[in-house]
């Protein structure tokens, strides 16, 4: 089994170089669409997750060796990493230089770990048909996501399910399938869209069927999300109402003046005290009372 085609290297023609250049742009575009789907980008950018792998599939399915597949995959994964986890280095003037160095290492090293996904996909092409092996790609990707949650080196930041946090109507199904299930569903939608576009380019009649399958999965999950949201009990806002503090809303006694001792002015000390603690003269302790007692 030939995994690396290093021998008998053939120089590419001018036309082939143009095609390779175009493929590089597609790979970078795929990584950038994946990256801007995550926070801090707002919600509409989250929808790019459902088409982010389509350019990647157009390129990888044409590569014939493991080295070529991993080269293309690394370029996409590197664009993903530099878009989503650039913040790890804390690029500021007062940042720790070792922290900045670790951020650079992470951006270059994480795509190497993600090559497990593309390598498993290429090996599956040796066992199954080329068109059928692509349907196993979601399983390989989720396997890679799970590996990134193990040991002390875990870094699950690029889990696809985590990128859908702002798409509330879609992530409701996570109570059934979990975060990894969301990743599986998103990748299947990408595959169906890729298959549909490829069949449209080849002028095949099955293109509409694949696009319909992707749209059907998307719509069914959205409907489930709306039903889930509408059926959940509505909670009152936890914040204060009309200027009153939370403590006052829960316990009325702190602001109820009748339940507290009234403050009265005390002339002898020049300030006010509660009525119960106002200084008073003791009976029988004054000189006048002592003189009366002596006369008697």
Summarize the SSE layout with pairings.
Blueprint: H1 14-35, H2 54-60, H3 66-84, H4 97-127, H5 130-133, H6 137-147, H7 174-201, H8 207-231, H9 246-250, E1 263-266, E2 271-274, H10 287-295
Antiparallel strand pairs: 1-2
Helix pairs in contact: 1-2, 1-3, 2-7, 3-4, 4-6, 6-7, 7-8
Helix count?
Answer: 10
Judged by helices, strands and strand pairing, the structural class is mainly alpha
The coarse silhouette is: globular
Separation of the first and last Cα atoms? 127 Å
Largest beta-sheet details: 2 strands, antiparallel
Question: What is the string of helix and strand elements?
Answer: HHHHHHHHHEEH
The total tally of domains equals 1
Poorly predicted segments: 248-252
Alpha carbon gyration radius: 34 Å
Outline the structure in words.
This protein is an all-alpha fold. It has one domain. Helix content is about 55%, strand content about 5%. The protein is built from 10 helices and 2 strands, in the order H-H-H-H-H-H-H-H-H-E-E-H. It has helices spanning about 15-35, 55-60, 65-85, 95-125, 130-135, 135-145, 175-200, 205-230, 245-250, 285-295, and strands spanning about 265, 270-275. A two-stranded antiparallel ribbon has the order 1-2. The longest helix has about 30 residues, at about 95-125. The chain is globular, with a radius of gyration of 34 Å. It starts with 13 loop residues before the first helix and ends with a helix.
């Amino acid at each position: 089994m030939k995994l690396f085609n290093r021998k008998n290297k053939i120089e590419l023609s001018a036309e082939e170089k143009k095609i390779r250049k175009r493929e590089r742009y597609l790979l970078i575009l795929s990584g950038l669409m994946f990256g801007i789907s995550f926070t801090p980008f707002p919600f509409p950018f989250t929808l790019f997750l459902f088409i982010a792998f389509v350019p990647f599939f157009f390129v990888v399915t044409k590569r014939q060796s493991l080295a070529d597949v991993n080269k293309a995959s690394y370029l996409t994964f590197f664009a993903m990493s530099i878009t989503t986890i650039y913040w790890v280095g804390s690029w500021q003037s007062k940042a720790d230089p070792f922290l900045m160095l670790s951020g650079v290492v992470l951006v270059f090293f994480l795509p190497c770990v993600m090559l497990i996904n593309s390598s498993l996909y290429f090996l599956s092409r040796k066992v199954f048909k080329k068109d059928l092996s692509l349907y196993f790609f979601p399983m390989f990707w989720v396997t890679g996501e799970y590996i990134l949650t193990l040991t002390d080196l875990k870094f699950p930041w690029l889990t696809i399910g985590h990128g859908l946090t702002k798409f509330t109507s879609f992530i409701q199904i996570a109570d059934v399938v979990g975060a990894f299930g969301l990743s599986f569903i998103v990748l299947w939608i990408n595959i169906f869209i890729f298959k549909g576009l490829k069949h449209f380019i080849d002028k095949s009649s099955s293109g509409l069927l694949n696009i319909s399958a992707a749209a059907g999965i998307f719509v069914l999950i959205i409907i489930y999300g709306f039903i889930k949201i509408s059926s959940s009990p509505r909670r009152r806002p936890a914040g204060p109402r009309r200027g009153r503090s939370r403590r006052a809303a829960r316990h009325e006694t702190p602001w109820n003046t009748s339940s507290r001792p009234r403050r009265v002015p005390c002339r002898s000390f020049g300030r006010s005290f509660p009525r119960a603690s106002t200084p008073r003269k003791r009976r029988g302790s004054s000189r006048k009372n002592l003189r009366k007692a002596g006369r008697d």
